[in-house]
Model the fold of this input.
Amino acid sequence: MIRVAILGYGNVGRHLASAIHKANDVALVQIYNRSEVTLSEQVNTVPFTYNLSTLLPADVYIIALHDDAISEFSKAVIVENALVVHTSGGVPISKLSTRNKRGVFYPLQTFTKGRMVDFSVIPICIEAESKDDLKLLQKLGRSISEKVVQIDSNERAKLHVAAVFVNNFVNHLYHNAEVILSESKLDFDLLKPLILETAHKIENLSTSEAQTGPAKRNDRKTIEKHLNLLKDNKNKAIYKLLTKSIQDTYGKEL
Ligand SMILES: NC(=O)c1ccc[n+]([C@@H]2O[C@H](COP(=O)([O-])OP(=O)(O)OC[C@H]3O[C@@H](n4cnc5c(N)ncnc54)[C@H](OP(=O)(O)O)[C@@H]3O)[C@@H](O)[C@H]2O)c1
Done:
C-alpha cells in the first residue's frame, strides 16, 4: 500500500486527491492546504491540515502548488525518508529542496475546478533520482492511469511548451473567435461542431493531413478579405503570423 499526502488543494490537488483516494493499493492519508478549503464529497473523510508541522507519515508527498511557490515550499516540507514530488510541467526537478528524496509526477491534462476528468487516459510523466523512487512513482501512476512515462526535466519543459500551444493558445483563439462573432451578434455555438471535428480528426490523420484553409490553399483574395474584416490589430497580427507559419510549412508565399 502506497501512502500519499497531497499538499495543495487547487485544481490539480483536488483532481489528484479524488483519483488517488479511489485507487487500489494506494491510501490518501492527508490533504494539506495553506488556507481552509471545502473538501469534495469523495475525500471529505481524509484528514486535512493547514499546518505543515502536522504532516502525517507518507511514502509520497505530492506538492500541487503554483509553479513559483514550489521551490521555497519544498524547503518547509520536513519528512522522514519519503519522496517529495511536484506536479508541474515547467519546473525542473532540481528546484525541489535536496532535504528530501525528489521527484516529479506531472499529469499532462488541463484541470479546472468542477470539471470531471478521466484519469485513466491521462499521461502521467514521472521523474526521480533513483530506480526505487522511479518504481514507486510508476506504481503510483499506474494506480490511476494506464499511461505512465518516464521523462526528464528537459524533455518535460519541451512537452510543456507544446502543451501550451495545443491547449492555452488554442483556447485563446477560441476566445478571439467568440469576440469576432459577438461583434456581429453571432452565436459561438455555431463553431462548436467545427472545433470538435478539428480535435477529433487528428486521432486518425497527421497534423499535415488535417490542415485545411485559405493559408494552406494560398487563397490570396480570401486572406486579404479576412485581414480587412478584422478590426482588432492584435487579431490582424495573429492572423498574419499564423498564415505565414502555415505557408512556410507548406511551401507557399503569402
Ligand atoms: N491546472 C492545470 O491544468 C495543470 C495541469 C498540469 C499541471 N499543473 C501544475 O500543477 C500545479 C498546481 O496547479 P493548479 O492549477 O492546481 O493551481 P491552483 O488551482 O491555482 O492552486 C494552487 C495551490 O497552490 C497554493 N499556493 C499558492 N502559493 C502558495 C504558497 N506560497 N504556499 C502554500 N500554498 C500556496 C494555493 O493555496 P490557496 O488555496 O491557499 O491559495 C492552491 O492550493 C502547478 O505546478 C501547475 O503547473 C496544472
